[in-house]
């Protein structure tokens, strides 16, 4: 699925972002405790219902619990590991071969339907939420365009608030490998090579990272680290 136009829109907002100095690693155990407490303001069913309803009063703390709390949901699956999502993407890709100015209303409606189907399985996927933002933009539905842009903005800020990506200890925490490349695009880094950082030392600590080398850039950043421990935790723990 092509998201070049969507990333261009997002770049207008996030293009000048630099690594945040006040980043904080997610406290997964605390998040799990809070989202499973029905009396907590972060009770997951309540938060998720507000998210689905496009509630723009959800704040930074709400999104931290929504995004990182999703890994404890029975429906959680890494975007690229979902057979259902891959099958839907194949359908979407048939439209990617058609120039945008030749897409019919029926084509756009189909793209809208398939994108929503993906979001039912992977609700925090930046590219697909951006796709809907662009869909509403083209339809002239400014209200929904703003609501979906808010979702994308908050998810990106949530990831950026988890680290600066400069080292393993300050890696960006993601719940989908797809989000690694979304963050690189937003920060205008071009990926060259990805490697999994994991050996006996890391496994014993229960940690796993992706390191993505990037092309030469004005910030002189050689590569970005992403903490993918939660994505691959079943492989680490055997559960």
What can you tell me about this protein's structure?
The chain has 239 residues and is an alpha+beta fold. It folds into two domains: 4-15 and 23-160, no CATH class; 172-237. 51% of the residues lie in helices and 8% in strands. The protein has eleven helices and four strands; from the N terminus they run ααααααααβαβαββα. It has helices at residues 4-14, 28-35, 44-52, 60-69, 83-96, 105-121, 126-139, 142-160, 177-186, 200-205, 233-237; strands at 172-173, 191-197, 209-214, 223-227. The chain has a four-stranded mixed beta sheet, covered by helices on one side. Strand 3 (209-214) and strand 4 form a beta hairpin. Helix 1 (4-14) crosses helix 7. The two termini are 33 Å apart.
SSE arrangement:
Blueprint: H1 4-14, H2 28-35, H3 44-52, H4 60-69, H5 83-96, H6 105-121, H7 126-139, H8 142-160, E1 172-173, H9 177-186, E2 191-197, H10 200-205, E3 209-214, E4 223-227, H11 233-237
Parallel strand pairs: 1-4
Antiparallel strand pairs: 2-3, 3-4
């Amino acid at each position: 699925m092509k998201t070049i136009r969507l990333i261009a829109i997002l770049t207008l907002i996030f293009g000048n972002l630099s690594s945040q100095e006040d980043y904080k690693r997610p406290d997964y155990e605390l998040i799990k405790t809070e989202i499973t407490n029905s009396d907590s303001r972060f009770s997951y069913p309540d938060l998720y219902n507000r998210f689905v309803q496009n509630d723009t009063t959800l704040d930074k703390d709400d999104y931290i619990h929504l995004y990182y709390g999703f890994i404890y949901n029975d429906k959680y699956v890494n975007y690229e590991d979902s057979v259902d999502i891959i099958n839907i993407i194949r359908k979407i890709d048939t439209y990617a071969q058609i120039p945008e100015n030749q897409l019919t209303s029926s084509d756009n409606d189909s793209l809208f339907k398939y994108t929503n189907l993906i979001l039912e399985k992977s609700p925090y996927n930046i590219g697909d939420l951006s796709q809907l933002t662009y869909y509403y933009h083209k339809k002239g539905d400014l209200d929904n365009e703003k609501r979906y842009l808010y979702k994308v903005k908050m998810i990106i800020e949530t990831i950026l608030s988890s680290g600066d990506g400069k080292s393993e200890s300050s890696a960006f925490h993601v719940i989908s490998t797809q989000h690694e490349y979304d963050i690189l695009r937003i920060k205008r880094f071009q990926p060259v090579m990805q490697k999994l950082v994991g050996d006996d030392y890391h496994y014993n600590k229960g940690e796993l990272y992706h390191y993505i080398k990037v092309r030469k850039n004005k910030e002189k950043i050689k590569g970005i680290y992403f903490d993918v421990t939660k994505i691959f935790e079943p492989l680490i723990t055997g559960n």
